[in-house]
């Protein structure tokens, strides 16, 4: 697809993605401010989903379709409308429809109001299987729903896959301090909150406020001694094996305690140098989805970082809705990756030895 001379690659798609994520963030902030129990549902896999997860997916689908009119539309997204079509879901569907139409009316970009059927169809535009050929949007409408429900960190994570490769990513992090996560403890430093991270292949990574301040280039930290490194990991103990990551940190000689926050906001914080390492080792059998890592990984790599699985391989987003990767994911700078991988692989060997029958 030819593009006007001088335009960086995927400029139109990046602009559309930022607009989509920023609008979805507005709906999520409204819901998080006044969330009530009836806004929260539990899915068949026992994970939570809220009216905001659904509303965010509708708005992202709508904006992308409005802003990108060439080519076919394909999106791999976390949510689907199955539970909303069941008896008893009328009220939550009504709430989602109201939220979406109110957000659209306040924004004013599109003179449109969606019916409930249009809401359900927009959610179901995310059913693509993705894969190694063609272009596919990849969306986690709220990454870190548990954090969202708890009033903590969450992210709207949108990426574009082109011929199996992640070529752009946008992370909307409404609760992340705009400057640095050093004051995550919520100490009122008067810090502006809300950060929009974005990256396109070969163009670096940027951060701006959610209301569209001029973007600033970001880069990962340059720490090369693990003793001076801090690391990010999941807030949820169930999402990563803390005894394992604790043993890796010890092997590395990391002194600082882990900074535990929900969602891909950790990739954004790492990309701007707030910490040196992000790793994640879910329990055996957990299958990582591509929407949980596509946007975050390109923000880090375009900020000069590296993202690998525990075997030191790049993450492979071309295999459908799930990531084809070995145990665990590590994101850090180029200086630290070799020693982190070495410690992880030693710890895996010890864990296998410890758990294998003598
Ligand atoms: N049991 C689980 N183990 C690991 N990750 C999970 C699990 N259940 C859900 N997730 C998803 O993985 C991510 C966990 O990352 P983190 O703990 O860093 O927030 C979340 O995005 C969550 O997706 P979601 O919240 O979009 O449903
Ligand atoms: Mg979920
Ligand atoms: Mg997720
Ligand atoms: Mg999600």
UniProtKB/TrEMBL annotation:
Reaction equation(s) it catalyzes: adenosine 3',5'-bisphosphate + H2O = AMP + phosphate; 3'-phosphoadenylyl sulfate + H2O = adenosine 5'-phosphosulfate + phosphate; adenosine 2',5'-bisphosphate + H2O = AMP + phosphate
EC number(s) on file: 3.1.3.7
Origin: domain of life: Eukaryota
InterPro entries referenced in this protein's UniProt entry, alphabetically: DPNP (IPR006239), Inositol_monoP_metal-BS (IPR020583), Inositol_monoP_superfamily (IPR051090), Inositol_monophosphatase-like (IPR000760), Inositol_monophosphatase_CS (IPR020550)
GO biological process: inositol phosphate metabolic process; phosphatidylinositol phosphate biosynthetic process; sulfur compound metabolic process
Residues the entry annotates as binding Mg(2+): 78, 140, 142-143, 292
Names of required cofactors: Mg(2+)
GO molecular function annotations of the record: 3'(2'),5'-bisphosphate nucleotidase activity; metal ion binding
Keyword Membrane: no
Pfam family, one: Inositol_P
Coiled coil feature spans: none
Keyword Disulfide bond: no
Keywords: Hydrolase, Magnesium, Metal-binding
Enzyme class: hydrolase
Family per similarity comment: Belongs to the inositol monophosphatase superfamily.
Purpose: Converts adenosine 3'-phosphate 5'-phosphosulfate (PAPS) to adenosine 5'-phosphosulfate (APS) and 3'(2')-phosphoadenosine 5'-phosphate (PAP) to AMP.
Protein name in UniProt: 3'(2'),5'-bisphosphate nucleotidase
Organism: Triticum aestivum (Wheat)
Taxon lineage: Eukaryota, Viridiplantae, Streptophyta, Embryophyta, Tracheophyta
């Amino acid at each position: 697809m030819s593009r006007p001379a001088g335009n960086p690659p995927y400029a139109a798609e990046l602009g559309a993605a930022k607009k989509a994520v920023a609008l979805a963030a507005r709906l999520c902030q409204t819901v998080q401010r006044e969330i009530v129990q009836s806004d929260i549902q539990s899915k068949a896999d026992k994970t939570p989903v809220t009216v905001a997860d659904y509303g965010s997916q509708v708005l992202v689908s709508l904006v992308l379709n409005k802003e990108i009119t060439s080519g076919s539309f394909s999106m791999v997204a976390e949510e689907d409308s199955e539970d909303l079509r069941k008896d008893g879901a009328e009220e939550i569907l009504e709430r989602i429809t109201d939220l979406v139409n109110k957000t659209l009316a306040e924004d004013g970009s599109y003179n449109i109001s969606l019916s409930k059927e249009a809401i359900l169809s927009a959610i179901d535009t995310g059913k693509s299987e993705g894969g190694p050929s063609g272009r596919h949007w990849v969306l986690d409408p709220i990454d870190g729903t548990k954090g969202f429900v708890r009033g903590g960190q969450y992210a709207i994570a949108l990426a574009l896959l082109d011929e199996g490769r992640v070529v752009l990513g946008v992370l909307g992090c409404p609760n992340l301090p705009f400057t640095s996560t050093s004051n995550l403890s919520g100490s009122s430093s008067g810090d502006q909150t809300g950060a929009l991270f974005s990256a396109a292949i070969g163009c670096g990574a940027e951060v701006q406020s959610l209301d569209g301040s001029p973007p600033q280039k970001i880069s990962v930290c340059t720490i090369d001694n693990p003793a001076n490194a801090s690391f990010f990991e999941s807030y949820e103990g169930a999402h990563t094996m803390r005894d394992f990551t604790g043993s890796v940190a010890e092997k590395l000689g990391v002194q600082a305690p882990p900074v535990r926050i929900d969602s891909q906001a950790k990739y954004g914080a790492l990309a701007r140098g707030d910490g040196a390492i992000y790793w994640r080792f879910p329990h055996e059998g957990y299958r990582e989805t591509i929407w949980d890592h596509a946007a975050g990984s390109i923000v880090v790599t375009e900020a000069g970082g590296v993202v690998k699985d525990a075997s030191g391989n790049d993450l492979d987003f071309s295999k459908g809705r799930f990531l084809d990767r070995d145990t665990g994911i590590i994101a850090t700078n180029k200086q630290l990756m070799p020693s982190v991988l070495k410690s992880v692989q030693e710890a895996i060997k010890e864990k296998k030895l410890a758990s294998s029958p003598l």
